[in-house]
Design goal:
The complex is a heterotetramer of chains A (446), B (386), C (258) and D (289). Chain C has 258 residues and is of the alpha/beta class. Chain C is built from 8 helices and 10 strands. The chains are: A alpha/beta (446), B alpha/beta (386), C alpha/beta (258), D alpha/beta (289).
Chain lengths: 446, 386, 258, 289
């Protein structure tokens, strides 16, 4: 649903474009590779766990989660959703999964040939499925349920997630590492059997280092966004993130592109260049953006709303020096665990026991100096929504920062109504003004 | 003269908090747990009374509205609502476990909005691989650490073995309880079983075992009612914590097997007393409890998976239930937003179809309002199989 | 002289208010219907009719509500949340919280002494908690909305509604009816269920008394009583709760002193 | 009266208490309709059951004693004190529809509280699917929305016929759909297109339900909305097949109940069992006295 006007207001970072382009490029390249008979795997976004291994084994990866979004954006999701419904999948399940069930059912009735109506050539029949227990139940139950259509095995990646207090118990972290490492070792054996090739450990070693370096740079870019005015808008982050998040294409090339991004953003900071004409308010966005009506952010930019930080789940883990760790699998494990545990100690110190995904937003808001939070609960995606009411409460309690909540969905795009958001901008600005005064009175520095 | 057997079970269900408060009054520590994956053996070994926490179907959710969205497991939502309303304030603490997202997410909110002296969250792996069992065992070790400091007692080889034996006895008692539903007509109704299990989960292990023994005696003594043959149903779902729901299912049939956490599921198998106790417990809970949350699959070859072999690996244990309990039909009963089980629905239906047993899926939203439509669906289902 | 008009095109009803010389000279309410342009024009007619035709008038109009876009003759559009805050502030300067119970959604708004919004929350789309719930059940009970509130106050033992959703609630109500539960007890149960939802919305923004209530739902005395008992405070009730937002819009039409 | 009972003299009744309408049908031994009545279901079910039954009897020129067996169905079936048996509306619809359309294989019934899709064979229900409780897929979806627009349900069909480009309506939830409708209106969309959009949304929701069972011709559409030509059109498009609609789409449930009452009696007679009928009184009991 468009907000009507189409005027572009956000001052996009030029170095973002080649990173964004990499999505389509690598997509086309993998399409060719697949046609050339290269093995393909369907994977869940697995937060650095499995991707480097698949990359080292030279396997093409497609992400049904993203494809679900693509189906929705192309407006062809409905047919697949109805098919999933007809297959007997309850209608309250994750919208992406339901779209994927409908797709898989079509794929197999066409003898494994991608359906003609599928956008971007569709997803080919996979060699195996790589799911992950991280983030939500759907992300492994979904692939297990695909067994109804695809006669290929599922590898379910473990992702330990202890409580913030319990994490402090002696040995907890090392046990998490132990689980992850031996688990990844088994996974490598599994992949070797599947493709009938041995792992090139040196290559893996190099890929892991590049992965960490890419993420480090992208982390530094976000640090730069603490500047006032903020030089880079959330839209640029979302456009630029895929190469780091999915290890797309050539990693050396990606690394260079992120460095270029860093340089341009750094230069903007130097010259006090803002991402929007006049930064009146700095906002944080959680979690998944309304992909189909992103021009809403232009309308908000006209009112001086600058989105300076966002979507914890898409952000790189904080950098950590693992040069002393020789085993690449252990480096993968420790690095992936970073995403959650890096903040556990701080979270406990600040007595935020509701999980890293809540604590991180307190950090974002206080370090990126946000005036407000834009929260976007998704009706059919519980993992991106459940913590938001608590998040709104704790941001107000601890930091006196108000939240604007506008509901949406991941596939039923009509559920998100930009008008609702725009209707509420006026009163929300009054609220942000009010709490600015309150924060000053309480001695906060923004 | 205190009530015994089934009437005692009814009594306990109707005044669960009072019963638990009784234990605290006797100077015992009482710990609440919302999910059957919490190894109660560890509590019993340290002389702590476990107390199962449920939602309250008749109670409108108000407090939880402020901390959880509407589209969320209504059972955990209601369970948290009760907690926020102070219903569990008499407890010495709560143990939650990462058995599903709703459990994990609710735990974090729970911990953030209540001030119980003790709160522990146990992480759980998703698979049953060896390294996963080891990790789960290490998590249980962490639980023991905090429980020991709470109770001021130490976990010894002796008291953990005693506890494991006591709970293994409870398992075998529940298993024999379900033998009583095999004759036709059954000696116990599903409605009675829901109450018995709910009562057992609200009592210290020995009292629970005592109650089960009484109920078994009482039911065995029953005269075979030669009533008109009613359809024999298998209930498959997450959990049933309300006798009225079962009464609706049984208005024109008998639920002779409850494959859910309010029935047989938590009591399948036995914990091995050989080797390290924590590893034994970890392995048992991870592999014996057949909740949809645990990832199981059968892989034929590195890149091949046979759907029917896979179904058998996931649901094979139901085959003998269908034959031994002479099941005429299966009701798949889930609350809305129960993702782990909802993803299973088409597959488990396929499995029952392969056994030639009709199955129907009923979804409700954990409100009284959903009972009337539920009844219509069950009756219509019975008409299709009758 | 200059007059100021506020027009609030809501999802179910549209309201208008006319201020002249700081005095409220006219107000009206009518169904929004399906042609918002026509509705807006009709409201304008009705309000202007109260003015002396011989006296030349300038009328500044501010539109608000979901249909604000269809008030072509408005000089300005304003957010209904802001207008509600201003309207309440005009009627009850001491009020620090306002609860607006509309047909489709309920809003809890915190405001300061100048009527500026300091925080607000809107009821979740799915959690219902809107006046629509009442309408639906009133329809089941075959009673009109006016009756609903007074009837519910007669209840000795209200039924418990385990859901706030209008549609689920409807089947629950029918079930109760079938069981032979008295009308007033069902009505009271509905008010309690909705009252609890509204109260928790207000708590979400840490309600600060004094608290005023407006919107169509405020006409339901049983509902107000339910909210009051849930929150444990008395609520300030305007004489004409439905036109408060329109009043706020009219106030917004007054040019700010430079 | 078991002695010398002649099936030919007997009559049979079915009464169907739905969430919005109550219907009664009386048939004779040949299964021909002697009387058919419908009236709105109010709060006072029992009161209404009596009224409708009385009207039906008057219509057939019969006395209660003349009716050998009464079967109650529908949402309020347990609230008909004078019924000999209670059977779900699903089986009764199956029976009634197959009586009218012997070739029927699939029945789509869009009622007030729920939408059902039935698979039927020779008058027997063999499988079914009902919508999960969200009313987005029920007749209430249209009713409530029409109500909130101040439009009569009867006028929906005529309006939707004038549609040129139906709007997309999210079919998540009735309440939410109404917000969406208002939004479309405020954006100046034509009411005709919005109504057509509503029909399509409902049709798609119900069609998905029907596909769970697999749609086999002949397909019969029953329930209140079957009177709405716009809805019949949309439903036909979504299922992409010909739809048969009974003259009285509201009565199939009651008719089925009456037919089952007839079968029950025939069975009893065949088994030589007495037609023990509980003494019936149409007491004018109401809930609110």
């Amino acid at each position: 649903m468009s907000t009507g006007e189409k005027k572009r207001v956000i001052n996009r970072v030029k170095a973002m474009y080649p990173l964004r382009a990499k999505v389509d490029e690598s997509y086309l390249r993998s399409q060719e590779a697949i046609k050339a008979g290269k093995p393909t795997v369907w994977a869940m976004l697995n937060f650095c766990y499995g991707d480097p291994i698949l990359k080292a084994m030279d396997i093409e990866v497609v992400y049904p989660e993203n494809y679900g979004a693509a189906l929705a954006a192309a407006g062809v999701a409905r047919g697949y959703l109805d098919r999933a419904d007809a297959e007997g999948f309850p209608t309250h399940l994750c919208g992406y999964s339901r779209a994927n069930f409908g797709y898989a059912a079509r794929l197999m009735e066409l003898g494994g040939e991608p359906p003609p109506e599928a956008p971007m050539g569709g997803m080919p029949k996979p060699l195996f499925l790589l799911s992950s227990v991280a983030v939500c139940d759907a992300r492994y139950k979904w692939f297990q349920a695909l067994g109804r259509y695809l006669d290929v095995p599922v590898w379910t990646l473990e992702a330990p997630l202890p409580g913030i207090r319990e994490f402090q118990l002696e040995g907890c972290y090392e046990e998490m590492v132990k689980l992850s490492v031996s688990h990844l070792r088994d996974f490598v054996t599994f992949v070797e059997k599947a493709v009938g090739r041995k792992m090139d450990w040196d290559r893996l070693d190099e890929i892991v280092n590049l992965m960490m370096e890419i993420n480090r740079v992208s982390h530094e870019v976000n640090e730069l966004r603490k500047a006032k005015p903020c030089p880079m808008h959330s839209r640029d982050f979302w456009s630029a993130m895929p190469p780091a998040l999915f290890l797309l294409g050539d990693l050396k090339e990606s690394l260079q592109l992120y460095k270029n991004l860093y340089d341009e953003v750094a230069e903007r900071v130097e010259n006090g260049i803002s991402a929007i004409p006049e930064e009146k308010y700095r906002l944080v966005f959680a979690e998944l953006p309304p992909w189909h009506s992103l021009d809403l952010f232009d309308r908000l930019a006209e009112r001086g709303w600058n989105f300076v930080i966002e979507s914890f789940g898409y952000h790189p883990p904080p950098p950590v020096d693992l040069s002393h760790v020789k085993d690449p699998l252990e480096r993968i494990a420790r690095y992936s665990l970073q995403r959650m545990v890096a903040n556990y100690r701080d979270a406990l110190q600040k007595n935020v026991v509701a999980g890293a995904d809540v604590y991180i937003y307190l950090k974002y808001v206080s370090e990126w100096k946000c005036d407000g939070a834009f929260l976007h609960p998704l009706v059919s995606c519980r993992s991106a929504s459940t913590h938001l009411p608590h998040l709104a409460n704790i941001l107000m309690e601890r930091l006196k920062v108000p939240s604007l909540i506008v509901e949406g969905d991941i596939v039923d795009l009509r559920l998100f109504n930009p008008q609702d958001a725009l209707q509420r901008t006026e009163p929300f600005e009054e609220a942000m003004e009010h709490y600015r005064r309150v924060r000053r009175e309480l001695g906060f520095d923004w | 003269m205190a009530a015994k057997g089934l009437s005692r079970a009814k009594e306990v269900c109707s005044q669960r908090p009072a019963v638990a408060k009784g234990a605290t009054a006797r100077g015992k520590k009482v710990i609440g747990y919302p999910c059957v994956y919490v190894p109660l053996e560890l509590l019993a070994a340290l002389d702590i009374v476990p107390y199962r926490l449920y939602g309250e179907m008749r109670e409108p959710v108000t407090e939880a509205d402020r901390v959880l969205p509407a589209s969320f497991c209504p059972i955990m939502r209601s369970c948290l609502d009760c907690a926020l309303k102070g219903r569990h304030d008499f407890l010495d603490g709560v143990i939650t476990i990462h058995s599903s997202d709703p459990q994990e997410k609710t735990a974090r909110i729970w911990q953030s909005y209540t001030t119980l002296p003790y709160f522990h969250f146990v992480d759980m792996p998703g698979t049953t691989r060896p390294e996963a069992v080891d990790y789960f065992a290490s998590q249980l070790k962490g639980l023991v650490t905090t429980l020991e400091s709470l109770s001021g007692k130490k976990l010894s080889a002796d008291n953990i073995t005693k506890a494991i034996n006591a709970y293994n006895h409870q398992r075998s008692l529940v298993q024999s309880l379900f033998q009583l539903t095999r004759p036709s007509p059954p000696l116990l109704t599903g409605t009675e079983i829901v109450q018995v299990i709910k009562a057992v989960m609200s009592l210290p292990v020995d009292e629970g075992n005592q109650l089960l023994t009484e109920v078994i005696e009482e039911a065995k003594a029953r005269k075979q009612k030669s009533e008109a043959q009613r359809a024999r149903l298998l209930l498959w779902g997450s959990t049933t914590d309300d006798a009225e729901v079962m009464a609706v299912l049984e208005s024109n049939a008998n639920v002779v097997f409850l494959e859910d956490c309010g029935g047989y599921r938590p009591y399948r198998g036995k914990v091995s007393t050989a080797g390290d106790a924590l590893t034994a417990l970890a392995r048992h809970y991870l592999t014996e409890i057949t909740c949809a949350r645990t990832f199981i699959q059968n892989v034929a070859a590195p890149t091949k998976k046979d759907y029917h072999k896979d179904l058998h690996a996931r649901y094979g244990y139901l085959k003998s239930v269908i034959t031994d309990w002479k099941v005429d039909g299966v009701v798949l009963l889930l609350v809305r937003y129960c993702d782990p089980f909802a993803f299973e629905v088409p597959a488990v239906k396929d499995y029952f179809a392969s056994l030639g047993v009709p199955a129907t899926y009923i979804e409700y939203d954990y409100t009284e309002g959903s009972l009337a439509p539920m009844r219509t669906r069950v009756e219509a289902f019975l008409e299709t199989i009758g | 002289m200059v007059c100021y008009m506020g027009i609030d095109i809501g999802s179910a009803y549209s309201k208008g208010v006319l201020l002249c010389g700081g005095e409220l000279v006219a107000s009206c309410v009518r169904l929004s219907g399906i042609d918002h342009h026509a509705t807006a024009a009709a409201i304008r007619e009705q309000l202007l009719a109260s003015l002396d035709v011989n006296e030349p008038q300038t009328v500044l109009v501010v539109a608000t509500g979901v249909g604000a876009g269809n008030v072509g003759f408005a000089s300005n559009k304003m957010s209904d949340i802001v207008c509600t805050a201003r309207g309440i502030n005009r009627l009850f300067p001491e009020a620090r919280t306002a609860i607006d119970i509309g047909a489709q959604s309920t809003r809890a708004i915190k405001l300061d002494s100048r009527g500026m919004v300091t925080d607000f929350a809107v009821s979740e789309k799915c959690a219902a908690g809107s006046g629509r719930f009442i309408e639906v059940i009133a329809n089941v009970l075959r009673i009109d909305l006016e009756e609903f509130g007074s009837l519910s106050l007669k209840s000795k033992n209200p039924v418990t509604f385990s859901t706030g959703c209008a549609v689920f609630g409807e089947s629950e109500a029918i079930t109760r009816v079938v069981e032979g539960v008295a009308k007033e007890d069902i009505a009271a149960g509905v008010n309690l269920a909705l009252g609890a939802k509204i109260a928790s919305l207000a708590k979400r923004i840490r309600l600060q008394p004094p608290c005023a209530v407006c919107g169509g739902g405020a006409l339901n005395r049983g509902l107000i009583a339910a909210v009051e008992s849930e929150l444990g405070i008395r609520l300030l009730l305007p004489a004409e709760p439905r036109t408060v937002t329109a009043l706020g819009a009219a106030i917004q039409a007054v040019p700010k002193p430079a | 009266m078991a002695e010398g009972v002649h099936l030919g003299d007997l009559f049979f009744a079915g009464i169907d208490i739905g969430s919005t309408m109550t219907k009664a049908v009386i048939i004779n031994a040949e299964g021909n309709i002697a009387a058919a009545i419908k009236g709105p279901t109010g709060a006072e079910h029992r009161h209404l059951a009596n009224d409708v039954m009385l009207k039906a009897l008057d219509g057939a020129g019969l006395k209660l004693e003349d009716v050998a067996c009464i079967i109650a169905t529908g949402y309020g079936r347990f609230n008909v004190p004078f019924a000999d048996e209670h059977i779900t509306e699903l089986s009764c619809h199956a029976k009634g529809v197959c009586h009218l359309f012997p070739g029927a294989r699939t029945v789509v019934d869009i009622g007030g509280q729920d939408a059902k899709c039935l698979k039927v064979r020779e008058g027997r229900l063999i499988d079914f699917a009902m919508n999960d409780k969200c009313a987005a897929g029920t007749g209430r979806f249209l009713e409530l929305t029409a109500q909130s627009l101040g439009i009569k349900v009867e006028d929906l069909a005529a309006l939707s016929e004038k549609a040129t480009s139906p709007v997309e309506i999210s079919n998540m939830c009735t309440i939410f759909a109404q917000q969406e409708v208002v939004m479309h209106l405020s954006q100046g969309k034509r009411i005709e297109d919005i109504i057509a959009g509503l029909h399509r949304a409902l049709a798609e929701r119900v069609a998905a339900l029907a596909r769970r069972l697999g749609v086999e011709p002949e397909v019969v559409l029953t329930g209140g909305v079957a009177k709405n030509a716009g809805m019949v059109l949309a439903m036909g498009q979504s299922l992409d097949c010909e739809l048969l609609v009974p003259e009285e789409p509201l009565l199939t449930g009651a008719l089925g109940a009456a037919l089952l009452a007839r079968e029950r009696t025939i069975r009893l007679l065949a088994e030589g069992k007495p037609l023990e009928r509980k003494p019936r009184r149409l007491e004018k009991a109401t809930f609110y006295s």
